[in-house]
Amino acid sequence: MRRDEEFSEFFTSRFDWARRTAYALCGDWSEAEELAQNAFVKAYAKWPSIRRETAEGYVRTIVTRLFLDSRRRGRDRERPVADLPELGVGGGFTDPDARLNAALQQVAPKQRAALVLRFVHDLSIEQTAAELGCSVGNVKSQTARGLATLREAYGEPVNSECA
Asked: Do the beta carbons of residue 55 and residue 12 sit within 8 Å?
């Protein structure tokens, strides 16, 4: 029973964080919730073998890989909704976070994942490479290309200290 209690405590304390991470990647709260839930299901299955001090990184890696897998399969093209939106697509943004998130959604998925891991989670290039399962050089190029796309999509200078 201790396993379930430990996992329940971890889930309760970290689910919102995982959902926000997924939202930064996919830009859709419904999909973010699904990604986070699936990540915790996978983590629960491996819970006895996960070191507690690395559990957060493990879940972050699962969320990122689930997001990238969904994009490779073309799932990002599907957008099922229960009701039609009241506002049309392409309305003007007044919230800077909404503008930045909309610009982030213009970045290719793998580049977006590199940006989120590097700048939202403040991981090193090496840590990002390990989470994405690629080389350090690949992370550097994905980050540089992603930042260029983000700057162009945002339409204004984005904090250049990140580059």
From this structure: no
